[in-house]
Amino acid sequence: MIQVKGVWFHYQPEEAPRKDWALQDINLTIMPGEYVSVIGPNGSGKSTLSRLLNGLLLPVEGEVRVGGRLTANTQDLWYIRQQVGLVFQNPDNQIVAPTVQDDVAFGLENLGVSREEMKERIRDALEAVGLAGMEQREPHHLSGGQKQRLAIAGILAMQPKVIVFDEATSMLDPQGRKDVLGIIRQLNEKGTTVIHITHSANEAFLAKRVIVMAEGRIQLDLPADELYPIALILEKWGLDVPLAVRLHHRLLGHGWHLRERITSLEDLVTDLWRFLSKD
Ligand code: ADP
Ligand code: MG
Questions:
Q1: How does it sit in the membrane (predicted)?
Q2: Does 45 sit in the ligand 1 pocket, CB within 6 Å?
Q3: Residue range 190-210: average pLDDT?
Q4: How many Å separate Cα 245 from the centre of its chain?
Q5: How much is the pTM?
Q6: What is the average per-residue pLDDT within 127-138?
């Protein structure tokens, strides 16, 4: 679905030595239907990478292909932007129209979709994010989580194959976050390729594959199950490892026979209780 080969990128490439570039020798293949998370500290190049994936930025060196087509080919750019949707961090910055319905319609205006099909796509997209019935509402009256779901609906209406969520939950309250994570999971289950950029290790473990970025490079790229046993390594790159995961690793190290993978305190307590209640 996506192929990144030997990509180097910097915003002012003439002015910086290679070791300071935002992206350094990135190689990455993403297959259709994958659910990949990208985790890394601030400034590690995650957002820059996401913008290269749909041709908003072009590599200074190397190449990015979407469905086999090069982002550097201007004539393929429309196709690529339609294939790879981006959802950003701040829901307020993504709203463009005075009503929910018009907001979803906005991206479609340029795709040359018929009125009938437009209506259908808008309805399906709003349905998918749980905003059906809110067509005439004014977006600025929505909660942060609802706005973010509206932004997702706008992307869905364009029927992309891939959606990149760039810290799309980080400005939301717990309920908004939960709703958006639920939608991400559902979309992936229905076949959308998901790339979920986050600096929450908890969220990263929801994916099947985790890519760890730091200093402009991919440091690790492995199944989430393989990252879990070495999760404490994330601290090396300045990432927060959740308390439940740290405690769990500590207890395993002391020979406590707990489950192999625990990501919430609730599960840890339940499992500790089970362990301690055995005879
Ligand atoms: P992340 O999303 O992981 O926090 P970014 O991709 O935003 O990282 O940033 C990577 C590097 O590129 C940082 O050094 C950052 O300062 C720089 N950078 C990001 N956006 C811009 C921009 N629009 N112009 C110039 N430099 C930028
Ligand atoms: Mg970022």
A1: Peripheral membrane protein
A2: yes
A3: 93
A4: 22
A5: 0.92
A6: 94
User: What distance in angstroms lies between residue 105's CA and the mean position of ligand 2's atoms?
Assistant: 27
Do residues 121 and 108 make contact, with C-beta atoms less than 8 angstroms apart?
Answer: yes
CB atoms within 10 A of CB 180: 23
What's the rounded mean pLDDT across residues 45-54? Answer: 97
Q: How far apart (Å, rounded) are the C-alpha atoms in residues 13 and 31?
A: 30
Mean pLDDT throughout 76-81?
A: 93
CATH number of 2-236: 3.40.50.300
At 144 the three-state DSSP class reads helix
Query: At 161, is the pLDDT very low, low, confident or very high (cuts 50, 70, 90)?
Result: very high
Gyration radius (Cα) of the chain, Å = 20
Which residues pair with residue 35 across a beta bridge? Answer: 194
- On whether the CB atoms of residues 87 and 158 are closer than 8 A, the answer is no
Task: Report phi then psi at 28, rounded to 5.
Answer: -160, 130
**Residue 141 predicted with pLDDT over 80:** yes
pLDDT surpasses 80 at 279:
no
Q: Where are the domains of the chain?
A: 2-236, 242-279
Tokens of 112: 């040359």
Interval between CA 66 and ligand 1 midpoint (Å) = 22
How remote is the CA of residue 245 from the centroid of ligand 2, in Å? Answer: 24
Sheet holding 2-9, edge to edge: 23-30, 2-9, 61-66, 69-70
**From 19, 46, 48, mutation site for ligand 1 pocket: most ligand atoms within 8 A of C-beta:** 48
Instruction: Give the whole-angstrom CA distance, residue 153 versus residue 126.
Output: 6
User: How far apart, in whole angstroms, are the C-alpha atoms of residue 268 and residue 252?
Assistant: 12
